[in-house]
Amino acid sequence: xxxxxxxxxxxxxxxxxxxxxxxxxxxxxxxxxxxxxxxxxxxxxxxxxxxxxxxxxxxxxxxxxxxxxxxxxxxxxxxxxxxxxxxxxxxxxxxxxxxxxxxxxxxxxxxxxxxxxxxxxxxxxxxxxxxxxxxxxxxxxxxxxxxxxxxxxxxxxxxxxxxxxxxxxxxxxxxxxxxxxxxxxxxxxxxxxxxxxxxxxxxxxxxxxxxxxxxxxxxxxxxxxxxxxxxxxxxxxxxxxxxxxxxxxxxxxxxxxxxxxxxxxxxxxxxxxxxxxxxxxxxxxxxxxxxxxxxxxxxxxxxxxxxxxxxxxxxxxxxxxxxxxxxxxxxxxxxxxxxxxxxxxxxxxxxxxxxxxxxx
Amino acid sequence: xxxxxxxxxxxxxxxxxxxxxxxxxxxxxxxxxxxxxxxxxxxxxxxxxxxxxxxxxxxxxxxxxxxxxxxxxxxxxxxxxxxxxxxxxxxxxxxxxxxxxxxxxxxxxxxxxxxxxxxxxxxxxxxxxxxxxxx
Lengths: 360, 135
Prior knowledge:
The complex is a heterodimer of chains A (360) and B (135).
Chain A (H helix, E strand, L loop, with lengths): L2 E6 L11 E7 L2 E8 L19 H6 L6 H16 L5 H29 L3 H22 L8 E2 L2 E2 L5 H20 L1 H6 L1 H7 L7 H6 L5 H4 L30 H24 L17 E10 L2 E10 L6 E5 L1 H12 L8 H7 L4 H4 L2
Antiparallel strand pairs in A: 1-2, 2-3, 4-5, 6-7, 7-8
Helix pairs in contact in A: 2-3, 3-4, 3-10, 4-5, 5-10
Chain B lengths: L3 E5 L4 H10 L3 E9 L4 E10 L2 E10 L4 E2 L8 H12 L3 E2 L30 H10 L4
Parallel strand pairs in B: 1-4, 5-6
Antiparallel strand pairs in B: 2-3, 3-4
């Protein structure tokens, strides 16, 4: 059979950001996929040379807008460990609240984009309509919709009062009811299943071996979620990961759908147990960060890792960021061979690729 | 760092990595840091049941490092990225982008190195930029 090389991306209707896959196909089936990156690489890690460890919070928040809170959380936790800072309990719970709000809006964004990838535009519109309410909550509690900038070294910079939290909970009731209304369509509709069930299958052994993370790993039946380590206040909220066993695009979308609802539960639990008190520890007079640490948290797309190295100065010696999409590209390269070319967009989108994160 | 760090050499690296794979570890990532003009520090991060273990390799910039991508396919992009950003060479990569995973020909080589091994005169590059109508 004659081989043809088809370029997928860097510009493609299902890709909001640029990534290029060089697909070798025989007849209509993919036999090999080679990625090409670097279209928008920014070298943000290197900014640690010219921005001090406080200013770097703003930089890491811009690695990815959709999960900016979680990038900043991971970075701040790392610096706090290097400096020996104890974060007040109320701040730890608020960090969970804003992280989970980000997870809900990220998953709703993806569920909409995923529906759009197989031509279900009204479903896309419904998910994004619901997502808007989360953006409103972010704006009301932090002053911003996307890059909410609440994390600081030692805690958080905002402290919502009881009335604001009551309002937030009523908004979440609405969001939860609206997501549940879409459950039948997203998880039982014939068209959705036809395009997603059995596509891009990754076994649990392969997913683990290839270093898959997040919903890609849990959609393949591996019950691993960094929130299980109990960082921030997760250890006090009885967190359980969402797991599906199908290993295909449908299983991955099911994980994200169920995680959106689970995050709403986590926010309610965090608010119901929210301790009183300070939201920011004093760090004045403490030594600048020294030594090295590895910090991990769970982004909507999976495990996020920061390696930080301090030299006892305002500027860190090294900030290394491993984002979840970077970890999910090798599993994607293994998923694609054997697929019909027409399934490539749906399977590629099923890893929730964030090129902004990848090209940090 | 709270977790265990095992020092390795270029000769023992692949063997140690293979041992960890047999023990059920998965590769999380590699972190490269420039130590001085001639050396880099590479940390190999592994995870098992949410517990981390690290291998530390201190390598000379000019001597190729054995690739672990034949053991862990997931190392493929990470090692290629280090080649681009630090100018290191990995020997035995399953797909070798030859330092062009990110970088176009005209881009600055080894942009993450403070101690540059570049031969091109930096003043010429700056001069071109200054004259450009769209810097």
